[in-house]
Amino acid sequence: MKISKKTAIKAIIIAICTAFSVQIMPMSRASQMLTPEQKRALIAKRAVFNKAKATAAASAVQNPIWIRTNDNNVIAIAQWKINEMTELSSLVKDQDGKNSQTNPTNVSMLTRSDLELLSTALDKISSGQFDQYYESLKPEYVKSLTDKNVGPGQLRNLITLAGTIKATTLSAFLASYFLPNDMQKYLMVPQIVSPVADYLKSEIVKKNRLHQAPLIGHEGKLVNVEFSKDSTVAVTSAEGEHNNIITWNIPAGQQLQTFTISEGEIDGVQINNDGSRIAAIVSKNFEMQELFNKNEQPTTETKEILILWDAKTGRQIKIFDNLPDTTIFFIEFSSDGKRIVIPVGHEVTVTNPEQEEKGYIIIADSETGNIIATHEVANNYPDVQPNPNGNTLLARSESDLILYDINTGQKIKKLDGPTEIIYDANYSGDGTKIIARDFTAQTIFIWNGNTGEQITQFNNIVPNAFAINHDGTKMATVSLSETTDTISIWDVATKTVTHTIDSKQTEVTSTQFSPDSRMIISTGLGDKNIILWDALTGKQLHALNHSNNLPDVNFSSDGKRIKSHSSPAIGEEKCTTMLWNTDTGKKIHTFIAEHDLLEEDSNFINIISPDDTNNRNFILWTSLSKDERNTLEKIENNLNIDQAHLLYQLYMAKISNTLISLSDKQQLASLPADILSIVNTYLKPTPLPKATLALKPQPFEQPAMVTTLSKTAPVKSQPLKQPAKPIQEPEIRKSQTWADWARSWWK
User: Fold this and answer.
1) Cα–Cα distance, 648 to 172 (Å, whole number)
2) pTM for this predicted structure
């Protein structure tokens, strides 16, 4: 698994700042005079770890989670610790009972010593012994700061590892434990309040309210709308002589830039992932150069051109007016926004049905507009897909699939396998796999999304519908039957069916995994034409009823919402789009609009649709009101360190269902009124019965997680060592209430 640059940089910054802070402050945090807010924040953080361990201990006796590290050691570790490390949790989340000492989960980013270091730190924090643990590491730490010949030491490694493995609660604890107040103000406040703001936003969105605001600025009939992938910018287009393209700040709905196409008609606009580039397809009439009869009036030919702009400055980068054919079918930007892909061809008309079927794929640099490559393909309507998270481009040429390097424009290879008719060729969500079916050959093929090398194929299978999960480790296929169709869930690595689902539907035409692979959605005929399933158990979660049969469905990028979409009936122009909540199965809203005039951002939180009362305006629908957005922005940017610690304490107590006791109401009163209001609504702790706060003394048992092995980078090839003994878990001490524990620590 690759670690993002952002995570790595954050880890490095924390390590550097920690190193600096050690030289300007006493080494042990216990020796400092902490403010009451800081001390309570540390208590709350420690309580979360203790609560996690206690909850695991109170559960039924279960098996440990076995991990194989990249130095080929096999180690057992408790479930509660797995849950504290996001990267590990994601690897074992759907192991489905297969995790064992003989079938451990491969973790390529950690060595045995790394995992032991993280495990020990979690033990020490949860048992209130971190001060002593820190003192034992301090000599090595100090030496590593002054002696260049000495390695970074366990403490600095621990700080870096916590960021790398995305142990967010551990990272926040370590940073607030070591960094002085002035550094926390600039570095730690954003880290402390970030999970709080995310939680508050998620809770507000769960209310399923949509707030409306008009987008006013176009002068003519509306043409289309698109969102940037990061949901920060939208671009709209319209007819008219002025301001026929506008970019908007999302979700504020404020105009950013206006663009005017003075000649020609706009057929559509597209925007790249971060909103820095926009491109417009424009139809123009060109006078034909050759006249067959000098006495005839000159004739014109309609041809489409492409115009590329810098969306932030409004500067026009290039006009593509000399493309090898007349029709631009659509525009696609690469995942990093540095390349633009332009598939062109020609319309085959009734008057010229034998016109040669060929098209072109143009790859250009979005910074300069320079064309990097032009490829001819045997397909009049070129179908291309940029890798959603990589540097390749998948194109169809007749029955062949061809992979290109989107940066260099060079052909990588023709994908081996398909010989007849290809259906539904797609990348997996993470871009590492390509899946397609050859209907005639009754085969499903899976290739590496970056190299084009074939990974596997499934023979003698003709599914009515099929899908691959986000990382390409699971596949779902639909088999037709006279009664209800069956959904089969496959393990791609072993090519075996792990379980089946009775869809309770006939003619299932599509199926799709949620981004986290925990849910599957199917569409078919019947009153409940959309059904949401638990992908691991096959249990039906919700049955939804879209207004028309056989709608197209998609998950939001966070899996919390579903969009169902149906094309207009014969003689109609407008489509029907519905938004649903995946937790409750309840419908959020129904939109009826022309296809190109309705668009959602990646999480389906911001939606733009035409204004039915004025065909010159769009409407922005947002799940956060203006006041809620302003309050969240204030939480992220305007809090001081004490206020940030207070909010973090309330947040940790809320998610761990732990009672807290503030010294007086002045702490809450220090918050601005709007922040206090949102805190009282979403972070007010729920009092627990006293009996539930006492932790019964009992031996600690390591719980298991019923999940499926996710594929990671290959383990280094070397002889398998004997499985290491499970990391020893300390015995839980005698029961005490959280308040008793906090008071003893306070003293």
Assistant:
1) 10
2) 0.71
